[in-house]
Amino acid sequence: MLSLNTKFVDKHVKDIDIKNISEEIYEAQRTLMSKSGAGNSFLGWLDLPVNYDKEEFARIKKAAEKIQKSCDILIVIGIGGSYLGARAAIEFVKSPMYNRLKKDTPDIYYAGNTISSSALSDLLKICEGKDICVNIVSKSGTTTEPAVAFRIFRNLLEEKYGKEGAKERIFATTDKEKGTLKSFSDDEGYETFVVPDDVGGRFSVLTAVGLLPIAVAGIDIDAMMQGAADAREKYSVADINKNDALKYVALRNILYRLGKTTEVLVAYEPSVQMLCEWWKQLFGESEGKDGKGIYPSSLIFSTDLHSLGQFVQEGSRILFETVLNIKKSNDTVIIPNDPNNIDKLNFLSGEELEFVNKQAMLGTLFAHYDGYVANIVIDIEDRSAYTLGNIIYFFEYACAISGYVLGVNPFNQPGVESYKKNMFALLGKEGYEELRAALKARID
Ligand code: PA5
C-alpha cells in the first residue's frame, strides 16, 4: 500500500489548513460516491476492481497466451488513454528496456500515438522478418492517429499472412456495440474486447484497454486487480486522517490556492517515467478546463536534477513536487572497490547503488524543502503488479475528487476536440467545408 509523508510540505501547509479544507473534500467525495456530480455517467472505473466482466477477463488471459505463442512483436495501436496505461504498467513492473531484455514474452511496441512518418517507418523496419500481432485500441474507433496506423499494419499483416491469417493476429479493443471499429472487426472476424460505456479513456487501464497488453508482457493481472480492489476499499473511508487519497487532494488544492499552479511528479526510477505520462493525462485532461487546473508535469531524478534542478530549487515559485519514493528496488547492484581509489569513491565500495539513489533523494528533499519548495512524498512499497493496482486506483480516485473540489467536470475533455476539427477541415474531410474555407483564409 502507499503512504503519504507530509514532513516536507509543512512550511506551506499546516494541520489547520487541512482541517479547514476537509469539509470541501468530504463534500466532493460524497458527490463522487453518490454518483450525483458532473460526468456521472463515466463512473464505471469506481467499481471496476470488483465489478468487472469475469468472462472477458478470462478471454484476455487466453488471448494473451495466444499472442505470446504466435508472435515476436505485439504492436499496440492507440493514443492517450488507449495506450498510456498499458505502457506505464509494462515499464513500471518490467522495465523501460523491456524489449531489449531476455524474456519469453513478445516485444511490445506502440503505434498510432503520433503521426510521424519517421516513427512509423522505423517501427515497420523493426517488424521486418518478425511475426507480428496487433492490438488496436480505440473506444470511438475514429481517432485519426490510431486509425491511420491500423490501416497500415492491417495491410502489412494481410500481405504477410493473408486475410485469414491476419484475422488470427488482430485483436480489437473498442466500444461494445457502436462505432466503425466494432462493426469492421465483427465483419472481419477479429476477436474483440470491450471499453465499457461508462469508463473514459484515461480511466480505462483496468479494462481490456490496459489488461490485454499488460498480460501479454507476462504481468499478473489478477494481482493488479487485487491491488486496485484493496485500494478501493481503503480510499472509500470518509476520514481525511485515515485516507491518504483525500489528504493528497487536500494538500494539492491548498498548494494550488497558494499560487502553486504546477505539480511536478518526481521519481528516482526511469521505469516510472511512463507512469508519470499516464498521470499527466489523468490529471491534465480531468482538471484542465474552465480556466482552472494544476498543470501536471514530471521529472526523473537524479537525471533531471542536472537539467531542471536549478529551476526547481531557485526558479519561479509556481510549483510543488509530489515525490514517488519506491522503497524496494527490483535489482541489486553493488559498487566495486578500486584498490587504487583513482576516483576517490572508495567510501562507496561495497554499497548498493540503490543506497546512493536514496541518499540523492533525501539530499534533494532537504535542499528543495530548504529552498521553500513544497514536497508531498508518497512512499510506495515496490514495483509489483499488486502495488501498481494500488497506485492506479489511488490516483484515479484522488483525481476525480480533486476535479470536484476545483468545480470542474473531471470526466469530459471538450478541449481535445478543437485541434481535431481543424485537422479534419485542413485534410479535406467531408462535412468540414466551411471551417476549411475559414482556416484557409487565415493562412493565405
Ligand atoms: O482519455 C481520453 O478520452 C482520450 O485520451 C482518448 O483515450 C484518446 O483520445 C483516444 O480515443 P479513442 O480511444 O476513442 O481512440
Name the descriptors.
16 helices, binds 5-phosphoarabinonic acid, 48% helix, alpha/beta, 444 residues
User: Order of strands across the widest beta sheet?
Assistant: 1-10-9-7-8
Hetero groups in this structure are:
5-phosphoarabinonic acid
Q: What average pLDDT do the residues reach?
A: 96
Alpha-beta content class: alpha/beta
Q: How many individual helices?
A: 16
Order of helices and strands: EHHHEHEHEHEHEHHHEHEHEHEHHH
**Shape verdict:** globular
Please give the structural blueprint.
Blueprint (H helix, E strand, L loop, with lengths): L2 E3 L9 H19 L10 H4 L6 H17 L2 E5 L6 H10 L13 E5 L5 H11 L4 E6 L6 H24 L2 E5 L5 H9 L2 E4 L13 H9 L4 H14 L9 H14 L4 E6 L5 H15 L7 E6 L8 H6 L4 E8 L26 H18 L4 E6 L4 H22 L9 H12 L5 H11 L1
Helix pairs in contact: 1-10, 1-14, 3-8, 4-8, 4-11, 9-14, 10-14, 11-14, 15-16
This protein binds 5-phosphoarabinonic acid (PA5).
